[in-house]
Every structure is written in C-alpha cells, then in structure tokens.
Give the backbone structure.
Amino acid sequence: MDTVLLDKILTEDIDQLVSSGNWRSGKEESVQGMLRSSTSNPGERKLTVEKIRFLSKDVALVDAKYEIINEEIVVRKMWSAFLVQKLEKEWKIAAIRNMLPSQ
C-alpha cells in the first residue's frame, strides 16, 4: 500500500503477471492493481528471497517465496520472480511473475 515506495522501486515500463493469470503493463496499471489486490486480499505480505541469478552486471532474476498472512492466520503461499535492473545506480523491478502452486 506504500505508493511512494512503489514509485521508487518500479520501472516505468514494468509488466506483471499475477497468480490469477491477468497481465498488468506499466507502472500506473501495476500500482493500481497492487492496491486493489491488497484491498481484496488483506494481510501482511512477506517476501523471502530464495535465489538471485545475475544475468549481467545490471540485470538479475530474483526468486522469492511470497506469503500473505491475514488476521485469521490463514497463509497464502506463492512464488514470485522479479526481473531487476540497475538504473542510475539503483536497482528497480522491471517485471514480476507471481505463481500460486496447485495442491
């Protein structure tokens, strides 16, 4: 829900594939989608980085466990992959892929 942080860490042309199968393109659409998702799926978000693979000195693929823990202590366990890019000495997220594993 921190739009100031999101504005700082996302590239302008970010794209995002969410666990529902929907695509979001661009920073504005991605941020608005994230805000809607946080409202419709309330709870604390927790990302735990599992692996970072550098594709070049300025591009990396980051794999993370993504959990949503709500007030009833229900945990939604997913995976996220982030393509990050170093732009002007700062790392920014250029793409996000979320996956909800099937049972």
The two ends are 29 Å apart (CA to CA). The chain has two helices and six strands.
